[in-house]
Amino acid sequence: MIFGAIGMALLLGAGPAAAMSVAEFLQKADALKAKGMMAMFAKSEIKLLMDEAKGAAEAYRQDVSKAQARRDPSYGCPPAKGKARLTSDDLLKGFRALPAERQATTSVKAGFYDLMKSRYPCP
Question: What is the pTM of this model?
C-alpha cells in the first residue's frame, strides 16, 4: 500500500527534490517496509520518499522534453506523460540493480534517469 503510493507519486508530479543517494532511498524504503502496517503512521518518512521520487520524475520529464525538441535521445524515449507504468517495485528493483558502491554515490535523480533510459530505450 505504501509503496503503491510512491509509485503513483512518480506519475503525478513533483515537489522539490533533496539530494538523496539511491542507498539512502533504499534504506528508508526498507525501514518503512519493515514497519508493516505501522508504516502508515510514518507520514513524514513516506512524504520524504514520495517527494524525492516525484522530484526525480518531474526533472526527468522536463529534461526529456528539452532533449526531444533537440532530437537528442540521451534520456531514452519514454511514452507520453501518464502512459509510462513504473511501480514502486519497479523503481526499487531498478535501484537495487545498481552495484552497492554506485548506490552510495548515485543520486536518486541520476538513478531514476538511468532506470528510465534502460526501461525506455530509443528505437
Answer: 0.79
